[in-house]
Amino acid sequence: QVQLVESGGGLVQAGGSLRLSCAASGPTFTNYAMGWFRQAPGKEREFVSVISRSSSSTRYADSVKGRFTISRDNAKNTVYLQMSSLNSEDTAVYYCAASTWSCSGYGCPRSLYDYDYWGQGTQVTVSS
Fold it and tell me: For residue range 21-32, what is the model confidence (pLDDT) as tens digits?
C-alpha cells in the first residue's frame, strides 16, 4: 500500500507561484503513474495533471496548461507540481494520487476512479 503526503500549499498573491510536493512511502513508487487533482469549495474534485512512471508522458487540464508543470523524482519517491501565474480560480485543496494504470497511446489516467491511493490534501489559496 502506498502512503502519500502532500506539502507546499499556502497563501499566495495572484500572479505568484507555489511548488507542491507529494512524498510517497511504500513499495515501488515507479509502479505508479502519479496525478494531481484539486477540489474547490462546493465543487467536484477535478483532474489537474498526471505524469507517467518514467516521466516520459505528462498531461494537463486545459485550465492549467502552460502555467503548471508536473515532475517526479523516482530516487526520492516524490512528485511535484510547480504552479505559476496563479489566479483565484486555482484556490482549492490539492491532492496527489497514485494509479496502477499506465500511460499508453490512448493517454494517461485522468479519472478519479483510475487512482488507487490518495493523499490528505494541501490547501492552496490565491488572494486577488
Answer: 999 997 789 999
